[in-house]
Amino acid sequence: MSDSFLNPATLNGATSVSPGILDDEIDGMRLADITTHFEVGQFYCLEAEFLDDGRFADWLEMLADDLHYWAPTRTNRLRRQQALAISAPGEAAFYDETKESLAWRIRRYDSGMAWAEDPPSRTRHLVSNVSVRERSDGLLQARSAFLVYRNRLHTETDIYAGGRTDVLRRTGAHGFEVVKRTLLFEQNVLQMKNISTFF
Is 40 in contact with 168 (CB distance < 8 Å)? Predict the structure, then answer.
């Protein structure tokens, strides 16, 4: 019996001339190598750990000084109108932040005036489906899916689901920093009492 079916070049019906996964391009960006992919995955795991442990000052260090942190709203549209389903820059957004404005939000937690986070929420950030691509400007573009569970007091429970597209720069204490983060929630109407969680 031949073992040719175990050959990666012909596995699952591929032929030896089929492009490999690393040859895949989207908008001219090739998938990053496996080492970079692993390092970005570990960066995201550390970020989730900081957020779930309430170490927001440490999380801020993972963000670039020129950060744009943006979560546009979305609307229900017919299939032929999907290009209009997500708000454009400058239009309505759940978040449209800089590193400075995020730092202000975090400082407010310790001011005694952040009623929505005193007592603080308990969260669990799950990040998956990470893909990393090399940009022509030397930066990385990483896409991921997230699920965030939030519980506060006795009965408040919220679940956020969505996707992130990040632009990452290779620098900083943790190997990368987030230059731009675009969050897209699956919900077009967030039914939570407040949105005091970071993603």
Answer: yes
